[in-house]
Amino acid sequence: MLFEFLRYLQPTHYFALQRQSSYFVYPDPSTLPETVLSQLESDSDFVDNRSTQYDLAWQAIHKGYIGGAKTLSNIEAVPLQDEYRFIGKYFNRVWVAYVLLIRILSFKNPVRELRAWRASRHVKRSTYLKQPVHYPDWETFESKLLESAPRVSVIIPTLNRYTWLKDVLHDLEQQDYKNFEVLIVDQSEPYDTSFYKDFKLNIAVRYQKEKALWLARNTAIKQAQGDCLLFFDDDSRVAPDWIAMHLKCLDFFKADVSSGVSISKVGAEVPAHYRFFKVSDQLDTGNALVKRYVFERVGLFDRQFEKQRMGDGEFGLRVYLNDFLNVSNPYAKRLHLKVDRGGLRDMGSWDAFRTKAWFAPRPIPSVLYFFRHYFGKKRSCYALLRSVPFSIMPYRFKKNKPMLVLGALVCIVIFPLVVFQVCKSWYLSGKKLKMGPLIESL
């Protein structure tokens, strides 16, 4: 990892792993263009110059640098004081205290830890994301890919959501880019064949009796005729330039994947860290355009995630590890309605860490299967420690900090129950690991 302390705070982050090429995603600052370096802030208060360089590499990626600079293949340990300084710059003070506590409880030398923490306790939180890397040529860029009009296959699995699917298809009718097909895998009960009659779209509908999201997407991928596959949800709304903005992004950055952003309320602002182009650290199959050859290289979606969570996250990590470029695209926005009926809700699994029953596994076993498979036991445990206490409160309080803190306190009170839930998830994820991935080739 770029800084060792990130293993406590971001233990299962894509960028923690070296890619197939043996390189990390972080650029070597000495190879960055001067136009990019001038947009970064060099911190001379680190003890070791390597920390200064790693800090610049962190800024470059998280501020949105996407380019051809050489990336780091070897990351060396830095002084303890620099570790505390780094997390103090980019994480809330509560998380700095959390790391200090874990270090002390892990039998690290408390005198050294407290001395290093004290030396960096006055560091100011960075506001670096307010000045992302700027791409002035984007607005005037004339995309040759758009001009060539490649066939796009829009893939929509649906389950008991005809009311919202109607609006989804009307939005597709209004697209200013016209060379696309719509592949729908309908799992609804009852299945309404007449629903699709009047849409002015090139639609292919396939009925699937089994209620299985990843089977539906895999089936549509194999059926698709397009060189670009655009994944969409059945409870979303998009603007007329949605497809065009995805294609333009692929062309502008010579990318393999364009990951659009999501908002959940009409008129809501895009979250700050998604308002600019950057190398994406996720893949959301409700709004992502993927070139077909990516699937030919990494395979289809892993059916170990069926009726559970994080199948798109796992696929996104395979994309990352295979050195493909996935760009977070703020211009390909969707309104995700998150309706309370149909889809994964009908399958009994919505949030990765929140359970619907007292004795259900926490988190959903597929989440731990993903963590353990790619990041190992130790980082998986750090991920549980980081996430489980704050998952006690219901989903509607997900962004309410006081309620999350209350959830962490409640977690202490019901600790034996939480331990049971986590152990159950660990056991079930172990069964998945023993079985192995269920990934078909294209």
From TrEMBL:
CDD domains: Glyco_tranf_GTA_type. Pfam families: Glycos_transf_2 (PF00535). Gene3D superfamilies: Spore Coat Polysaccharide Biosynthesis Protein SpsA, Chain A (3.90.550.10). InterPro entries: Glyco_trans_2-like, Glycosyltransf_2, Nucleotide-diphossugar_trans. Keywords: Membrane, Transmembrane, Transmembrane helix. The chain crosses the membrane at residues 403-427. Residues 153-269 form the Glycosyltransferase 2-like domain. This is Glycosyltransferase family 2 protein. It comes from Snuella sedimenti. The lineage of its organism: Bacteria, Pseudomonadati, Bacteroidota, Flavobacteriia, Flavobacteriales.
